Amino acid sequence: MRCPTSPSLSQSSSPASEPAGRLKRAYIRFCLRLWISSYLRVRLTGLENVPRDKPYLLNFSHPNWVDPFLVVAFWPNRPRVFIFGPREEQMKFGWRNRLIAWTGIAVPFKPSKSDLLDTTRRATTVLKRGDVLAIAGEGRLSDREGAIVQLEDGAAFFALRARVPIVPVAIIGTRWLHFRKLVTLKAGAPLELDGLRPNREGMATLTARLQERMEDLLAGVEEDPPPGPIGRWVTEVFNERPWLNAPPPTSG
User: Fold this and answer.
1) Which residues, other chains included, contact 146 with Cβ-Cβ below 8 Å and sequence gap of 6+?
2) Would you state the pLDDT for residue 8?
3) Which residues have CB under 8 Å from 94's CB, separation 6+?
4) How far apart are the first and last CA of the chain?
5) Enclosing domain of residue 66
6) What's residue 96's pLDDT?
7) Read out DSSP for the chain?
8) Is 1 inside any structural domain?
9) How confident is the model at residue 71, as a pLDDT?
10) CATH number for the domain including 179?
């Protein structure tokens, strides 16, 4: 299994076990909406596909650093939404990670596999409590607007362990950002478990179905041209794509 693992924190200090209070969450969502709406236009489509008042795993495409903030700010808040990530060792560094830690909405993880059982407990606790766990199932940023990286099996594993459906969500328009750009969060029909078990076969089957559903949601999406210097800076300020800067392999 390739899903990342969680930090070795006590359960009492886990964001998943201490949800942000109602007023705090409302304040966070208000501030994020105000901040994002000052630069972008956001719309949600396909909400008729989203389960009401019951837990589910939300798998979103991930072209840009702003995507998790869009989910927190604009996604329906019943049930409450928690974000799987970022990496636990980054939480104490940089204002962005400190802010995420303060919100209590994140479920941080370690990129190693030393705490797989703890990761599973933290992720499934959110779902079994009746909330929503949002995860970027690609495990990294995608490189093009209408294309999705091959999904890892973490989303399927968590959904199967908690026995909840997966709602696929395509985030369209964030690969390049410019002032008043229209960004769409497009929800597809949920994938039910259909008797699948949390084993290798079940994870592989559910991951393949999710991959197909995500590709369907992104079908026909065209790449926008890069914006000017300001838009390019906003787009890339927190993005990490080291594979694009890696030297080409040498022959011979």
Assistant:
1) 172, 218, 219, 220, 221, 222, 223
2) 31
3) none
4) 34
5) 11-245
6) 67
7) ----B-----GGG-TTTSPPPHHHHHHHHHHHHHHHHTTEEEEEE-GGGS-SSS-EEEEE--SSTTHHHHHHHHS--SS-EEEEEEEGGGTTSSHHHHHHHHHT-EEEEBSSSTTHHHHHHHHHHHHHTT-EEEE-TTSS--SSTT--PPPPSHHHHHHHHHT--EEEEEEES-SS--TTEEEEEEE-PPBP-TT--SSHHHHHHHHHHHHHHHHHHHTTPPPPPP--HHHHHHHHSS---HHHHSPPPPP-
8) no
9) 96
10) 3.40.1130
Q: What is the pLDDT of residue 88?
A: 61
CA pair distance 125, 13, nearest whole angstrom: 14
**Number of domains the chain contains:** 1
Amino acid in the structure at residue 193: L
In this structure, is residue 225 part of a structural domain?
A: yes
Is residue 230 one of the residues assigned to a domain?
Answer: yes
251: in domain: no
Give the pLDDT confidence score for residue 17 in this predicted structure: 41
The whole-number mean pLDDT for each consecutive block of 10 residues of the chain, a chain of 252 residues, reads 36 43 90 96 97 95 95 93 76 68 79 69 92 94 92 95 97 96 98 94 97 96 93 91 58 47
